[in-house]
Specification:
Elements (H helix, E strand, L loop, with lengths): L2 H16 L10 E7 L4 E6 L6 E5 L2 E5 L5 E6 L3 E3 L18 E3 L3 E7 L4 E6 L6 E5 L6 E3 L11 H4 L10 E7 L5 E7 L26 E5 L20 E2 L11 E9 L2 E8 L12 E7 L16 H4 L1 E9 L2 E3 L1 E10 L8 E9 L7 E8 H16 L6 E3 L21 H6 L8 E3 L3 E3 L3 E4 L1 E9 L2 E8 L3 E7 L5 E8 L11 E3 L2 E8 L3 E6 L9 H6 L5 E4 L4 E4 L12 E2 L10 E5 L2 E3 L6 E7 L10 E6 L2 E4 L1 E6 L2 E7 L15 E10 L2 E11 L1 H6 L5 H6 L6 E3 L4 E3 L18 E3 L6 E2 L3 E9 L7 E4 L5 E8 L2 E8 L6 E10 L18 E6 L8 H5 L8 E4 L2 E4 L14 E6 L2 E3 L5 E7 L8 E5 L2 E5 L9 E6 L6 E9 L3 E12 L2 E6 L2 E3 L5 E7 L7 E5 L3 E8 ...
Parallel strand pairs: 19-25, 19-26, 39-46, 50-56, 60-66, 68-74, 76-83, 85-91, 94-100, 99-101
Antiparallel strand pairs: 1-34, 2-3, 3-4, 4-5, 6-7, 8-9, 9-10, 10-11, 12-13, 13-14, 14-15, 16-17, 17-18, 18-19, 19-20, 21-22, 22-23, 23-27, 24-25, 28-29, 29-30, 30-31, 32-33, 33-34, 35-36, 35-37, 38-40, 40-44, 41-42, 41-45, 43-44, 45-46, 47-48, 49-51, 51-54, 52-53, 52-55, 53-54, 55-56, 57-58, ...
């Protein structure tokens, strides 16, 4: 990964970490992160350097402590096979095919002492390598050593060799100082699911890997590295016997060291599926030889199996047991009642492999484990029991059962680690059980720490969460927190604390390595919050006044400077001030401060008291005696304090203690004013004064509250009970306006003091003393105009005048209240009036009003009968329970005197809702049937009243509900139809009798409500019931069923961009939208809009408008419920993580509005009414990707028709008349809500134009009058001609319409996959190599030769007639000279061959011939091909000659125009290059390109044959070439005929023909059907067979193209067709070979077109003019309309063409084109030498040398490759395809327009994509590893060897000699002028060749 990408990833993850939630659950923080592109496997942390080593699939990373990449090393993929030994094993070659295999890391261990990193991968049978810890890119030790012969598989096969097989390991040092590697690996050999099903004896060679082994890891002893060769070796492996391996499938979890033991935790997966009580999680223990020497004098190393013992572990008990181990972590913790930490093993278990979501945490004490092991060994030796057994499944097992050994006393070491004479290895059968500490779904890993004597557990989960638990001493849960990890990836089962700082935890997810801070303490701001949060890592840093981990507290190690959670909030610093309250009048200079809680010694620190910001005084520390400290602080002067606020009597002053400038603890004291205390409570001044927190005294004489006790005033009161006070007493209510007397009791008041009764009115009443403690106020009259009013009675002391004029009152500790009532107010009827009696109001009803009873004489307390004005509701269910409200008059004076009846059904009154006389509420009783009755109210002593309205008991019914289904998320609006659905007081709709469907509308006939979400994830059908009056649903007539279905899911939205104006249609794609009734799209930060559901998969929304460009997101409310993804429910997630971004957000970007303007950007466009108007509108650059249907243009109120030319330009046309009263019409472009006037259209001309028009009209009128006479004479003649023309036009228009419709239908229907129809039963008829070469090298000669073939000779065999062809080229025949001349000629040719193998001669020879003017291009090509044949056995020499000649050619071209080089084949070397490419690319052509090319040819032929083909002109309905297009509508129908071929030996076949086919065309199709499995060269010709038709009468008719029945058409004889003979569907025909060649027509295409015709006349467009005035029976239409057929054919063939181009322009990894790479590198090298830097030039050179020189030749000439028939029509189609390929390879852009030829236009759209493929191909070739000359020569030599002796090289040499002889003197002259040739006497040797061959008569069987 490049560093830039790493930085970006780290930044991204950093942001992710910063944005993580900071709520209560956030006690963890991702500090650093590294994102891996590959899946992670293992990691390790170096405790010294803090480097992190991360191993992933195919890579290993070296990271620093903050997880930045230091080194990255690729480890895969590599070529490997599971059936092959490691390639490092020299004696074990592998015959199995190898493929690229991913390398999964299986083991990653650090050996600090040796400085190596042990890396073991899954490839090469679990091979390990040792890398340097400082730089993992370097190998520390090369193993096995180079040249090492004694390497065994066991030294290499260390880890498990499968991605899903487990491996664990650990490194330790034995007491001899040797480093050892303990490895546990799952067995992956034969018989396991990891081993390929090979069924071979060689499979057994992989069975030697043991499950557990101790190996040597001493890098100084390489010969024994990774061996078990540790004395004694056989005991250092733990290997399960082969026959019981299926019962022991060990899946290892972790290996770790505790004390001097190695523990290995694993699962035996073979036990899966057994009964639940059988645990399959096992803990095994092995004693290690550590640095402590053994006491006994035994061998150097301890035996592995001797000490091996295993025990099952089980988390939970029967019924709730967890049996599969997922993760373990050993830790020392403080458990209950433990004085010191004890070692525990924490483990995460799952129920079983199938339900790994159900998981739990358990803890096992190592003391219990050790005791179980000792007891097990003791039992096995002394008292055998079923609890322990010997592991007989291991090859070292010493027996199946324990054998009693008498009274053998075992030493402690033997109990722990066994002994040689004791049985081993052992297995305990009874599991060690533990109660689950914590159960939670999806746990995957555990890590534990002891933090300040608290146990803190970290748990990783499968959904990417890290949970932190704090456990109490009794191992119960105290607190828990959760951290969400990136990408919600599962956490790896091993987590490690940072070795240098255990406040950080390293953990690994599937694609991330994370460093997590275990606590984020600074979120708690107070000491109590910090210590009360329950996070053991956090404590209060006293002198910093913040919550931190201990390490971050500067003085954290000092005593009492950091308070831990265990000390508790009670140790938080607090202060006590002395005195706590200070009188404002006191003279106090200092305040004493006692500091409580945990505060360090402050001696030597700068301590201050701060009274506010910037106001502080220096404190003096007096005493420091441990937990408490005393100090004093000077008080500020009084004026520095704030004044005491009005209405209060004190001021609170805060004081903070600052230590060295930091506030540590704060408190406050009070400054009070006693005088204010008495003044602010005037009615209770004495009691208030003596009841304050601080000490005040009451001065009775002066009626003052004072702060100090003055000796001059001895009578100051100190106790509130001594205060003069008024004793409150109950006073009955008093009628308004009536005089009353009040008697009052007093305390502590001297008799005789003048007092007045004060009731808050202006009138005061003198209080007369009755005795020493009682006074009386007489004649007190109080009035009110309210129903009732409260007055407060106080006693005023008249003898205390005050300066301020304030009244002095006797204290009233309890206020004395007097109620005054007015009977005339609030009592509108008799019952209300008499009803006031309960409130103590003595009122009565008389004279039709309410008055005091004293005024009513006589008193009559009987009221009129009750009146009922209104009842509601008017109906209810027969079950009763309806709250019936009755309103009226005189409805009783109290509740217990009223009864209510509905007919005879009682209605129970609710007293709490009773309002006297006017309103009552009762609960209706149960009725036996539905009924309607009046409501009666019976009041005691007043009679009965009846309602005018009637109450109905009704039976509601539910009839239907729509819809009956909805989404699980709820929100679906359902309508329930029925009868009487709105009766009663309360109606509810319940779902499953639990949750409520929220009612939105309710009538008698229907209820509309909104369905709640489903309670469970898998809820399907639920009951919906209408409940009345809160009674549970009992009637089935009120219930129905509703189905919760899967929630709708949104897949994506398109487009993802909107313009600022909004209104763009956003299409929402998804599923399940048929359940959606309403949709709202809310764009965050912008607004919301309502959407429309179009189908179950599509919703459309209009984007809202935005004020600015921005990146935002949209969310959707489906049925009013926020869409949060496709799984809103999860029974596996206990709680929803708060604050997470849900999945329902879809990115939406707002960009600027599109810009439009007219072509020339004019704002005013003049237009004359009546004329068509076309506007050209340009669109500014925008990345909105607007679709054509999103645009609309209006001119005024007229819509404009839009036609698009490209993305940036469109035309807007109005053909109708523009008329408007306005002179100017605006041109408005509208896109969504975006409206923009881009121009205005000005209608009409100027006044001058009108005058001119009138004059012109007058002149025209005169001329028209003259012309009218002439016109009338000719009109009748023209009328007839016009009618005739009109009919023809209509006919033509109808035909055009029909043809266009057909063309469009073909375009849509023919785009099928032609492979379904292609018959591929035959093999591909490849030509042999020698035929390919001769046809490619000598194309003209091959063509001439074929034309001169004599009549072929046929012979019959079982497959029918086959053609015997002679060899196609003389160069493939043997060469023989005449006997007389044979020795000389052979010697001369041999000598000539030797000369040609001399580079100087050959190059000089070629240059000499090329300089001759009469040495034509054809001669040059012939010479090049002959040289290629002659030197075919030495291709490397031929290549060097070609390169030298090319260098000369490049030198010549570079000086002129280098881009023209290799464009044509005009020189010998250019033809040599063509031949060289043909030879080198033949294998690639045959193996890679052959099949798609042949499929394309078959597809072209089949597509052409699908329609009519003119047999004479060759034109067809379906073609790619416009010149070969049948431009007429020939009605052709396909039909099937049954044909038998006499003498063919095959059954009859059904052949598909067209009814327009000529007999010759039918014959060709029949021959193809019978001979399709043979090469074309073996097919008979149509002219050589007869075809007979047997009609229904068994009469036969010989079918011919021309016979007596042929008809004449336009003076030509028409060829007979199937239609001509009226051959029906399914007719029977017979074909046979002609006995002798008759004088038949010959080939149809050679017929004279002037005499014969098939479907169309040749050159119709020319002959049409000649007969334009005579009616033709053939209907003519515009020929251009048939061009759509080109598109139809192109669309059908497109897939085959794409496949062909893909095959040509791709590089298969198994067969890279070496020749292309070699030659392209040669071109680049030559360009560099000549300073040619233009990339286009190099592109042209490459194109001219490969695509145009080789591939275009092959594309145009398939007969060079296949034995097929290339028709002229196929040749025309291939020309179009070849042209497209040529255009794709060109560097210049195609400039196409409407006048361009269709052959170029047809593939114009695909050319840019093909160009990209060509450029990509060239780039891939360039990026291939360079090819050395040796590699290329080896490749060329292999090609030469492959086709040795294929050609007649002597004949080729003889042909070359002819050129040498013709230009003998010029060659000799050139050789003599060449110094090197002259020096080597080459010209003499050449003359010798001439002398040997000259004058000898040589006869060649044929000229080459």
């Amino acid at each position: 990964m490049p560093p830039s990408m790493q930085t970006a990833l780290l930044l991204l993850l950093g942001v992710l970490a910063l944005e993580t939630r900071r709520d209560r659950a956030m006690a963890l923080l991702i500090q650093n992160a590294f994102a891996s592109p590959n899946h992670t496997n293992n990691f390790a942390v170096d405790p010294v350097s803090r480097k992190v080593y991360l191993a992933t699939v195919n890579s290993v990373y070296q990271l620093n402590g903050t997880l930045s990449v230091e080194v990255e090393k690729r480890t895969g993929p590599v070529e490997d096979n599971l059936l092959c030994h490691a390639p490092q094993l020299p004696q074990a070659p592998c015959e199995h095919p190898k493929s690229l295999t991913d390398n999964y890391n299986k083991l990653l261990e650090l050996d600090r002492e040796q400085g190596v990193l042990v890396l073991c991968g899954s490839v090469y049978q679990g091979f390990c390598e040792l890398r340097k810890m400082e730089n993992i890119s370097e190998i520390a030790v090369e193993f096995p050593p180079v040249g090492e012969k004694t390497v065994f598989p066991s030294m290499l096969n260390i880890a498990a060799n499968h991605p899903n097989a487990s491996t664990v390991g650990l490194i330790f040092r034995s007491h001899g100082g040797n480093t050892r590697l303990l490895v546990g690996a799952t067995y992956t050999g034969a018989g396991t699911q990891f081993f390929p099903k090979n069924h071979s004896k060689e499979d057994l060679r992989f069975e030697n890997t043991p499950e557990i082994a101790i190996r040597s890891l001493n890098i100084k002893d390489l010969s024994r590295l990774f061996t078990y060769d540790i004395n004694p070796s056989e005991d250092n492996v733990f290997k399960i016997k082969q026959e019981v391996k299926t019962k022991n499938k060990l899946n290892f979890v972790r290996a770790f060291i505790q004390k001097s033991y190695s523990y290995i935790a694993f699962n035996n997966d073979a036990k899966l599926g057994h009964k639940e009580s059988q645990p399959n999680s096992i803990l095994a223990r092995i004693c290690l030889d550590t640095d402590t020497p053994r006491k006994s004098s035994g061998p150097e190393s301890r035996k592995l199996t001797e000490s091996y013992i295993q025990m099952p572990l089980q988390c939970g008990f029967n019924g709730n047991s967890y049996n599969r181990l997922l993760s373990v972590h050993p830790a020392e913790i403080h458990a209950e009642d433990a004085q010191s930490p004890e070692p525990y093993l924490f483990a995460v278990f799952s129920k079983d492999r199938q339900s790994e979501r159900k998981t739990a945490l358990c803890a096992f004490k190592f003391g219990d484990i050790e005791e179980e092991i000792r007891q097990g060994r003791r039992n096995c030796s002394n008292s055998p029991s079923s609890d322990v057994q010997v592991l007989d499944s291991v090859i070292q097992g010493s027996g199946a059962a324990c054998i009693q050994k008498g009274n053998l006393v075992l030493q402690p070491e033997q109990l722990d680690c066994g002994a040689a004479h004791l049985q081993h290895p052992l297995a305990l059968r009874r599991p060690l059980r533990s109660i689950p500490l914590y159960e939670y779904p999806g746990l995957t890993s555990v890590s534990v720490d002891n933090v300040h004597n608290h146990t803190v557990v970290f748990l990783g989960t499968s959904n990417g969460r890290l949970r932190k638990l704090t456990l109490l001493a009794n191992m119960t849960l105290a607190n828990q927190w959760t951290l969400k990890l990136p990408a919600s990836e599962a956490v790896h089962h091993i987590m490690t604390f940072d070795p240098s700082d255990r406040n950080f935890l390293y953990l690994m997810t599937s694609h991330h390595m994370l460093r997590v801070k275990v606590s984020e303490c600074d979120q708690w701001k107070s000491c109590s919050g910090c210590l009360g949060a329950g996070d053991a890592h956090c404590g209060w840093c006293t002198l910093e006044n913040r919550c931190t981990i201990q390490k971050e507290c500067p003085h954290g190690r000092l005593s009492r400077s950091w308070i831990s959670m265990s000390e508790g909030p009670q140790q938080c610093p607090s202060i006590t001030l002395t005195p706590p309250e200070i009188s404002i009048s006191a003279d106090i200079k200092d305040v004493g401060i006692l500091i409580n809680g945990s505060v360090p010694d402050l001696a030597g620190s700068r301590v201050e008291c701060e009274y506010g910001p910037g106001v502080s005084t220096a404190a003096t520390v007096h005493l420091d005696y441990g937990p408490a400290q005393i100090q004093t602080c000077p008080l500020l002067p009084r004026e520095n304090y704030q004044p005491i606020p009005p209405g209060t009597d004190h001021l609170t002053v805060s004081v903070a203690i600052k230590v060295n400038g930091t506030s540590v603890v704060s408190g406050n004291f009070i400054i009070y004013d006693c005088e204010r205390t008495g003044a602010i409570h005037p009615k209770t001044s004495c009691v208030s004064c003596l009841s304050t927190r601080w000490k005040c005294y009451w001065d009775q004489e002066n009626h003052l509250c004072v702060a100090n006790k003055d000796e001059t005033k001895p009578n100051l009161l100190e106790n509130a009970a001594s205060c003069p006070s008024l004793v409150a007493s109950e006073v009955p209510p008093v009628p308004s306006g009536m005089a009353q007397d009040f008697t009052l009791s007093l305390n502590h008041i001297q008799e005789g003091e003048e007092l007045e009764c004060d009731l808050g009115t202006e009138q005061r009443y003198e209080a007369a003393w009755l005795n020493s403690s009682t006074v009386k106020c007489s004649g007190v009259t109080l009035s009110t105009n309210q129903r009732s009013q409260i007055y407060h009675l106080n006693l005023r002391r008249k003898g205390y005048p005050r300066d301020q004029g304030e009244d002095i009152f006797v204290d009233s500790p309890q206020p004395m209240k007097v109620e005054v009532y007015n009977c005339g107010v609030g009592s509108s009827d008799c019952s209300q009036c008499w009803g006031r009696e309960d409130q103590g109001h003595r009122c009565g009803w008389c004279e039709n009003s309410c008055r005091p009873r004293d005024e009513c004489q006589p008193i009559r307390d009987q009221c009129p009968a009750p009146e009922i004005h209104k009842i509601s509701p008017l109906s209810g269910p027969v079950e009763g329970g309806t709250l019936l409200t009755i309103e009226g008059r005189n409805l009783g004076r109290r509740a217990d005197a009223v009864k209510v009846l509905i007919g005879d059904v009682p209605c129970g009154l609710l007293p709490e809702l009773y309002t006297i006389s006017v309103k009552l509420v009762c609960v209706t009783g149960w009725s036996e049937q539905d009924r309607t009755d009046i409501v009666q109210v019976d009041v005691d002593h007043s009679g009965m009243g009846a309602s005018k309205e009637k109450f109905s008991y009704l039976v509601p019914k539910l009839q239907s509900m729509e819809p009956r289904k909805g989404s699980r998320a709820g929100g679906t609006r359902v309508t329930i139809w029925g009868e009487h659905l709105d009766i009663g007081f309360q109606v509810n709709v319940k779902v499953n009798n639990t949750v409520e469907c929220t009612i939105t509308e309710k009538t008698e006939e229907f209820i509309e409500c909104t369905m709640p979400p489903a309670l469970q994830m898998h809820t399907e059908s639920v009951t919906v019931c209408v409940e009345f009056e809160g009674l549970p649903c009992q009637s089935t007539e009120l219930s129905t069923t509703y189905t919760y279905e899967k929630n709708p899911t949104i897949s994506f939205i398109h487009p993802k961009k909107s313009y600022l104006s909004g209104g763009r249609t956003i299409t929402v794609k998804g599923q399940g939208f048929d359940l959606v009734q309403s949709v709202t799209m809310q764009v965050l930060g912008i607004g919301e809009t309502h959407c429309t559901v179009l189908s179950s998969t599509i919703i459309t929304c209009l984007s809202p408008a935005s004020s600015q460009s921005q990146q935002t997101s949209a969310e959707f409310f489906l049925n009013g419920v926020l869409y949060t993804g496709d799984s809103p429910f999860s029974d596996e997630e206990p709680e929803e993580e708060e604050g997470e971004l849900h999945k329902g957000h879809f990115m939406l970007e707002y960009v600027e509005d599109p810009q439009f303007f007219t072509a020339s950007k004019e704002k005013l466009i003049k237009h004359h009414p009546g004329e068509p108007l076309t506007l050209i509108i340009n669109k500014g650059p925008s990345d909105l990707e607007l679709a054509p249907e999103e645009y609309s243009v209006m001119i005024g109120s007229y819509p404009c028709n839009i036609s698009f030319h490209n993305d940036q330009l469109f035309h807007c046309t109005i053909n109708g008349l523009l008329s408007s009263s306005e002179r100017e019409l605006p041109v408005t472009v509208q896109v969504g809500n975006f409206h923009r006037i881009i121009a205005k259209v000005q209608l009409g001309g100027s006044e001058l134009a009108i005058v001119v028009s009138i004059v012109v009209c007058c002149v025209l009128l005169l001329l028209c009058t003259v012309a009218l006479v002439v016109y009338c004479t000719k009109s009748r003649r023209a009328e007839r001609y016009w009618q005739k023309t009109l009919v023809q036009m209509e006919e033509m228009e109808s035909q055009i319409r029909e043809e266009i419709r057909k063309g469009f239908a073909e375009l849509q229907t023919d785009m099928t996959d032609l492979t379904k129809e292609l018959n591929r039963s035959q093999g591909i008829p490849f030509l042999e190599y020698k035929q390919f070469v001769t046809r490619t090298f000598f194309p003209k000669m091959f063509s001439d030769y074929e034309k001169s073939l004599v009549q072929p000779v046929y012979e019959n065999d079982g497959l029918g007639p086959r053609v015997q062809l002679p060899e196609t080229h003389p160069l493939l025949q043997d060469w023989q000279a005449n006997n007389t001349t044979r020795p000389n000629v052979e010697e001369g040719i041999t000598l000539f061959s030797t000369l040609l193998n001399n580079k100087h001669f050959l190059i000089t020879f070629v240059h000499a011939l090329e300089q001759q003017k009469d040495f034509a291009v054809r001669d040059r090509c012939s010479l090049a091909s002959l040289l290629t044949i002659a030197l075919h056995g030495k291709l490397e020499y031929y290549t060097s000659i070609m390169k030298d000649l090319l260098v000369d050619l490049i030198d010549a071209s570079a000086s002129k125009n280098p881009k023209l080089m290799l464009r044509r084949t005009e020189s010998v070397v250019e033809k040599m290059l063509t031949n060289w490419m043909s030879i080198c690319m033949y294998s690639y052509l045959k193996e890679t390109v052959g099949e798609p090319f042949f499929l394309l040819l078959c597809a072209i032929k089949q597509q052409i044959n699908k329609g009519s083909i003119d047999a004479i002109t060759g034109k067809a309905r379906y073609t790619l070439n416009e010149e070969w297009l049948l431009r007429e509508n020939i009605e052709a129908k396909p039909q099937n005929i049954n044909v038998s071929f006499q003498g063919c030996g095959m059954d009859s076949l059904s052949v598909r023909v067209m009814n327009t086919d000529t007999i010759c065309q039918v014959k060709e199709k029949i021959i193809e059907a019978f001979y399709k499995n043979l090469p074309f060269s073996q097919w008979p010709r149509a002219e050589d067979v007869d075809l007979e038709w047997f009609d229904s009468g068994s009469n036969s008719k010989l079918l011919q193209d021309l016979d007596n029945s042929s008809v004449m058409e336009d003076g030509r004889k028409k060829l007979n067709t199937v239609f001509h003979y009226q051959i029906p569907e399914g007719a029977s025909l017979a074909m046979s070979m002609k006995d002798k060649r008759e004088n038949t027509l010959g080939r149809v295409k050679d017929l004279d077109t002037e005499k014969y015709v098939h479907l169309v006349l040749p050159h119709d467009e020319l002959t049409e003019n000649k007969r334009s005035h005579r009616q033709s029976h053939r209907k003519k239409v515009l020929p251009e309309i048939y061009l759509t057929r080109l598109l139809s054919t192109k669309g059908t063939l497109q897939k085959f063409l794409d496949d062909l181009f893909q095959a040509i322009l791709s590089i298969p990894p198994e067969r890279p084109p070496l020749a292309v790479k070699y030659f392209f590198d040669f071109l680049e090298e030559q360009a560099d030498k000549r300073g040619i830097t233009d990339p286009d030039t190099l592109h042209i050179w490459k194109t001219n040398s490969l695509p145009l020189r080789f591939w275009v030749n092959i594309l145009k000439n398939p007969q060079f490759v296949f034995d097929i028939d290339k028709t002229d029509h196929m040749d025309a189609c291939l020309s179009v395809i070849a042209q497209a390929f040529i255009d794709a390879c060109s560097v210049s852009d195609l400039q196409l327009g409407k006048d361009s030829p269709t052959n170029k236009l047809l593939y114009a759209k695909e050319i840019p994509e093909y160009k990209k493929r060509v450029q990509c191909y060239y780039k891939q070739i360039q990026e291939m590893p360079p090819l050395s000359e040796q590699e290329m020569n080896a490749h060329l030599a292999e090609e030469s060897r492959k086709y040795r002796n294929e050609f007649n090289t002597n004949l080729a040499l003889t042909e070359i000699y002819k050129y040498a002889k013709r230009y003998r003197h010029q060659v000799v002259s050139a050789l003599e002028s060449n110094p090197t040739a002259r020096r080597t006497q080459l010209h003499h040797k050449f003359e010798q060749v001439i002398a040997l061959v000259e004058d000898n008569i040589y006869e060649c069987c044929s000229e080459a």
